[in-house]
Amino acid sequence: MEYIVLILGICLLIGGIIGSILPALPGLPLSWLGLLCLFFIPGIETNYWLLGITLVITIILSILDYIIPAKGTKMFGGTSYGIWGTNIGLVVGIFLPIPFAFLICPFLGAFIGELIYNSQDKKRALKAAFGSFLGFLAGTFMKVFYALVLFGIFIWLVVKNYEIWVK
C-alpha cells in the first residue's frame, strides 16, 4: 500500500510541475497534495509544520498567480483581452510542433487579444502584449520553481527515510 501512495505522490508532483506551465491545471495544489501523500506512509516522518508552511506558501503563490499577470498587463496599459489572449496562446502553443511555440504563442495571443479590443492602436497593443507576456513569464517561473522545491522536499523525505523501503 505504501508503494501505491508513493507512486500517487510522485504522479501528483509531476502533474503539479506540468500544471505550473499549463493554465488549465492547478499546478501548485497538485504538487502540495503529492507532498501530503507522504504523511500517509508509515515510517516517513513528515511534521505538521512542514505541511502547514508549504500549504500557506502554496495558497499565497496560487493567489499571486492570478494577480501577477493582471498587474503586468495593467502596468503596460493592457486589458483583460490581453490576458485571455495570453492564456489561449499558451494552450495553442503547447500543441504546435514549432520549437518554442509555448513562448511565442502567448505573446502573439496577447497581441491579438489587444488588437481585438482596439484595432486602431497597434503600438499600445504591442506594449500591452509585452506586459502580459512578462506577467505570464514571471508567474510561470514562480510556479515552476516552487513546484520543483516541493518535488525536492518529497525526494529528500523519501531518501532520508530510505531504511523503511529496504526490508
Automatic annotation (TrEMBL):
<feature type="transmembrane region" description="Helical">
    <location>
        <begin position="88"/>
        <end position="112"/>
    </location>
</feature>
<keyword id="KW-1133">Transmembrane helix</keyword>
<dbReference type="InterPro" id="IPR007403">
    <property type="entry name" value="DUF456"/>
</dbReference>
<feature type="transmembrane region" description="Helical">
    <location>
        <begin position="6"/>
        <end position="36"/>
    </location>
</feature>
<protein>
    <submittedName>
        <fullName>DUF456 domain-containing protein</fullName>
    </submittedName>
</protein>
<dbReference type="Pfam" id="PF04306">
    <property type="entry name" value="DUF456"/>
</dbReference>
<keyword id="KW-0472">Membrane</keyword>
<feature type="transmembrane region" description="Helical">
    <location>
        <begin position="48"/>
        <end position="68"/>
    </location>
</feature>
<feature type="transmembrane region" description="Helical">
    <location>
        <begin position="133"/>
        <end position="159"/>
    </location>
</feature>
<keyword id="KW-0812">Transmembrane</keyword>
